Amino acid sequence: MRRHRRTKIVVTLGPSSSDRAMIARLFAAGADVFRINMSHTAHDKMRDLIAVIRSVEKEYERPIGILVDLQGPKLRVGTFLEDKVQLTQGASFVLDSDPKPGDQTRVHLPHPEILETLEPGHTVLLDDGKIRLTVTEASPRHATTRVEVGGPLSARKGVSLPDTTIGYGALTPKDRSDLEAALDAGIDWIALSFIQRPEDIAEAKKITRGRAAVMAKIEKPQAIAHLGEIMDLTDSLMVARGDLGVEMPLEKVPSLQKQMTRIGRRAGKPIVVATQMLESMITNPVPTRAEVSDVATAIYEGADAVMLSAESAAGRYPVEAVTMMNRIAEETEKDPNYRAIIQAQRAEPEATGADAIAAAARQVAETLDLSALVCWTSSGSTALRVARERPKPPVVAISPNVSTGRRLSLVWGVHCIVAEDARNQDDMVERACRMAFKDGFAKAGQRIIIVAGVPLGTPGATNMVRIAFVGADVIGDV
Asked: Helix and strand tally (H, E) in the chain?
């Protein structure tokens, strides 16, 4: 199951895509990683979905990544005496600790940590930013606000706080329970929602202890302010444009997307661009032209992966959405300008042996027009450093660890093969040639370049480059 594109596709599962037949169709259409949203998924259902994905993985003999997305702290207002109230521009509106149903003058805010943190001048957004309030007075038990942008407000609508750093971690008790259940089920990636600071990543990593890679969802201004520190700790970033566009001016989101993609590329860590990429395909069999251009823009920027949310989870055309995303990626990467843009964004290698080897291997492969760049990798670090170079030849990662292959399914351009570790250098070269031929990356008479660490099986010891000829004796053994 070789993909003819470098950009990966993350597909969210949901009511429209929960049975085995549909998940198999989505994988065949182009899904590389499946996302399970714990905001809408019970533990038993999560385990069922994971079992189905592993069954499809076994059928296709190709590692499939599983991303479990934690809900994070959901901030909501309380209830009202009536179905909804109308907030009028210029009026006063109070958020308080009184649990009684509210009216058009006040409502319960069941989050004391917010009331303790709000200050005069802070902005409070309600109902996905449709209503905007400015705090005029604040105390630990109530906050008086002025309605800047009014509108109808009903019970349990969401609260966003673009100016306020709240004194809680990103992991709620529900998140901790979901995280432990996901780790026990053997998932590959965990996504953290509504993080504010690097300590949120450190907290999650203490729990995962390497059992899953951690992805930081960037959707709050506070996270943007600490982006460099967050990038140092996390294994990946998701540009979560939905909530980011609520808490920050919409016009800032495109430039932030570009900044995060560049930062991730320099760090050699995968970047996922998400939210409303093919939104109209929830109800229509084809996307808008603007949506196609949006997906292509993320690909031109060098994002590792693009993601489908409601399009595949609850939409009427999940397979068509994945197929369209696959077609957009393939066509964009065929554009001669694509290589020029990707090359222009290339960062200088860091002063490490692994980066020097990866950069040299990319240059040799492109200079000699080699058919594939094959990495032997135990932990996945070699493949990550090679993918950071965005080489022109395909990248084939061979690992003895299925968990490594699954995590690498999110990384730009990496075709993962799970196989026993090589016994020695000759075995390493012979099997690299055989697997590159078998999976369609090299033909008889072509050459490949092999990157590995010696001694074999030592994580992070990338120190060897070898050019190998795919000969008839290798083909005969396939």
From this structure: 18, 21
